[in-house]
Structures are given as structure tokens and as C-alpha cells.
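As a warm-up, study this chain.
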Amino acid sequence: MTPEEILKQYWGYDNFRPMQREIIGAALEGRDVLAILPTGGGKSVCFQVPGMMRDGVTLVITPLIALMKDQVQGLERRGIKALAVHAGMSRREVDLTLNNAAYGDFKFLYVSPERLGTELFQSYIDVLNISYIVIDEAHCISQWGYDFRPDYLQIAEIRKIVDAPVIALTATATPEVAEDIMDKLAFREKLMLKSGFERPNLSYIVRRTPDKSGQLLEVCKGVKGSGIVYLRHRRKCEEVAAMLRGNGISASFYHAGLGTEARAERQEAWRKGDIRVMVCTNAFGMGIDKPDVRFVVHLELTDSPEAYFQEAGRAGRDGQRSYAVLLWESNDAKRLRQVGELSFPDPEYIEDIYHKIHIINQIPYENGMGRQLKFNLDEFAAHYKLNKASVHYAMKYLQQSGHITYAEDVEISTQVRISADREALYDIDLPEPEMVTLLESLMRGYTGIFSYLVPVNEEKLASACGTTVPMLRQLLYKLSLEHVIRYVPCDRSSVVFLHHNRLMPGNVNLQLDKYEFLKENARRRSEAMIAYASEDDLCRSRFLLKYFGQEESADCGTCDVCRSHAGDAATKKKILKYFKDNPSADISAFKAFLVDPANGMPANSAAVYRKMLDEGEL
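Now compare it with the structure written out below.
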């Protein structure tokens, strides 16, 4: 089958988006390829189509657990068999999944990067028939990138063992990051394919204002359709959503503090249009395929232009006119710089957090390698009387320096073991017939369930039993009370994965050169974001394109700067005509002309006049 036939059969599309066909063609030729496509550019199709055309399993490495699960479910809905291995899974779960990937008829295996270096994963490499190595969010492999993950450096080691082409994908890579990606992934030849970063249907608007709420209401009332509002803090999300509802706008909030079901329900309600505006942290939006988002509003400065470009790019994926609005004030720049300082606590503090992680989990020296620990940031900080933000950033740097993997807000599956003997089950008198149906479904659907705890898919199990997920959980609980099963309910928790045995004090290598390098990089990106917000002369689109290395570009004509320039041009014409018609007018008469409403002069006309003087136009 051709790529076009695969696309039609499984995705229902007749044509590829820009650059998709070229990227797929390079992959089918067996070439290593770095694909740089903007958010919404259809990166997943670029590896899923060639993956369907080659024998074996496509290994997809991605740090985004939620996106991983969404893609696996999406492939399964299309009749394509896929699996995922990520933080939060037990060793037995990982072993079973890798065994299925090696010996079952699966086409895609999604793996979080921290799993690559584990002994268990390494033991399966020889029996996994890997057709492609796919690296999603490939900028994470570069120290120049905005989300460096040292776990990604394991990929080059896998390449020494696995002779399979690489498909690396990212939406945000500066020229230095792109070059570094290809070096770190040991490309056999450097091939980079990218579509332009231009989004001609997306208007970038920046407003400096102390009245963010008022401006946000203006956007929500002035632009029809659904929208996303981004904030940093959970509490503010809830407050802004309440404010919007109080002003008659359908809105809800979304952040990592919500339960699994609440998040899924709100996401689906927003996707269907039952909720118009979602006010959220950056936990929302990744991998959500909603093409008709008409506006994305940021009420605070993001850490970098990369993060802003990615989040703003969730608007207007259907090609219709949409808006990316940034509302800020001068204090926001001050706060962003303060966050930059807080993001890199003193090395002594970071080492202290390293030891406290081991102490609170009672892990002695020279022990702990490969252990996966539940980590509750609030409880940890309270226990040691520490600032939560400082602990969070210390954990992030421990990850960046290769000591741990810190996966926030991971879903841990429901697990069940049938504790009664198989023969004895037939003699047990269960009080509800639904329990019998559930037991039969468990026995049919999950091998090994009599021997050990196995993860169960609640949605599939509930469907098989003809019930709902809440009712299923009640039945599982009742069966556990009858001592028929052991039931471990699903949970959400941050997880710490230990890369090595606990080190002695003074032996924790925090790589101080890397510390300074990453700190300076973060500062540089923050300043670039402040510069974007402060810019009042260069087209917003051109600013972003230039940041990502695209020197040749034209004014977009629709951003606030371009509109201002268009208005300034009209104002200049009026000023020149005034002096032509009134060659002997004095300054008092001219000032009266500028402020007279009847003349239709804009509020910035005096500034335009001064600029004309400065540039010699008058």
C-alpha cells in the first residue's frame, strides 16, 4: 500500500498536510530525519504512516504520559495495536507490556525516556523487532532546548544496538537546537525538513494593561467560538473561571489538582463545545485535537518563546481566523525574572533535597537504584518545613543532572488479583449477580490474575460487564470485602524514579558547569519572552520567526504591531495633509487639530508626529 492509501484507510484523509509527505518519504527511504512542524502540523502521522508500512514495531520515545495514552487509544480506535510503558507502572506491568511488544502483533510501542536505560528494557532490545526509532519532543535531548531531559541521551546508545532509522519531531527548535538534536541522535546524514513557522490565519495580539480581567472579557465577548486561557497557578485558574461565569460566559477550569474523571469530563465537554472557555495551567491542551479553537489568551508571560509559540499555536488549526492574545503588565516581567532565579536553587540546597528524598523513603546508602517512589510534594515540603516551589525546582534540576526522573501527576492503574482458588470460586455464594459477571470478565480478560496483581482497564472492563466505571468500582470494592479479590484502586501521584544507589554526602555530582549553562539559557529565553511582549515596532509573527531562525519573512498584516503601523500610515497622511493645507499654522493650532474628535485622530497621533520629526519626514 502507498502512504496515501494508508492515510485514507486508517485516518480517513485524502491528502497530507504540508511537509508530511516529504518526511514520510525520507523515512521510507531509511534516512534519519528531523521534522520540525508547528503545533497542529500533524507530527504523529509522519511516523505512524511509515510505521504501518514496515514490518516490526515502531519505538516511540516521548516524555508526555498523557499524550502517550491518548495516542495509544487513538491508534486502537483505528484498529491499530499499540502499547505504552511509562512512569507509574510496576515492574511486572512493564515486563508484560514489553513481552507483548516483542511477541505479539503490535505496531507501536510508546516508551517514556527514563525506561530506556533500565535493565529490564535493555533485556528486550534484542527481541524487539524495531522498525523505526521515533523521538517526540526531540528538543528535550538538547541542553540548548527549553526542556532538557538527560534520559534522552540514552537514545544514542540504543542506536549502537538497533539498526533502524530515526524520525525526530519537534514544534520548537532554534537553529542551534536543531543542529544539536542531529548530533546527539548520531544522524548518519543530517537531514532536516521543516514547514514554515508562519501561521497566516493566527493574529498575535499583545496588550500591556493593568486590567487583565476587563481585557479578557473583551476578547471572550468579541471573538466567537471556543477558547483557552492560560495561567501558571491552579488557584488563579479557578478564580478566573468563576469571574467569566459571573459575566455570563460558559467557562470551567483544568489543572493537575483535579481527579482523573473530572479532568476527562471537562476536557470532553470543552472539546464538544458544552464548555466554551477552558481556564487552565499548561497541563491542558497537549495532544488535544480540537481544530476550531478561536482564541488562546495568556494572562501571564510564559518562560520562553518556545512555550508561548506551542501553546498559542493551539488556536486556529482549521485554518480559520483565530487570535493568540498576551495580556501583561510591567510587574509580570519582574515576576518572570524572579521565577528564573527561583528555578535554580543553590547547589547545596539541591543536594540536601536529594538526601531527604532517600531519608523519607528509608533508603540506606548504596541502595535504591531502579526504585520507583510515590512523591507528594505538599507532604514532603510540610514534613521538612520547606518552600514547595524551591523543592519543585530542586527536583527538576536533580532530573536535569541525571540523578532521578521526576514525573508529575502520573496515573497509576487499578490493580486486581483474584485471591480465592479457581476451584473454590464456584462454591462461593456472591450476594449480587453483577459480581459473578465481573469475576468472569476478569478471568477471561486478564492472564495471571490468580497469581499476582494485574492492571485492569476500568473503561473496557465496565463496558464488558455492561455497567459504568463508578458502579464497577463499587463492585470491585464489594468483592474485596468478600475476600474474593485483592483490589488496589487507581491513584494519581507524582513519581520519582531513582537512577542509581543513594550516594554519600559530598558525592552527589550536580555538574556545576551544566548548572550555570542551563541557568544562563533559561535567563536568555525569559529575556526573549519579555522582549516579545515589549516589542512595539517589529511584526509579532516576524519576531517569532526570527527567534526560530527564519530570517526571511514578511509582515503578517494582522498582529497588533502591523495594525498599529497601518493606522500610523493613515495618521501620517493626515498630518502631512494638514501642513500642506496650513503651511503657516502655529503649534497651538496643530495641537488643537490633533485633539479635536471631529478630525478622527487616534490617541497616539502626537507620538506619530514626534516620530515623523525624529525620522526627518517633516
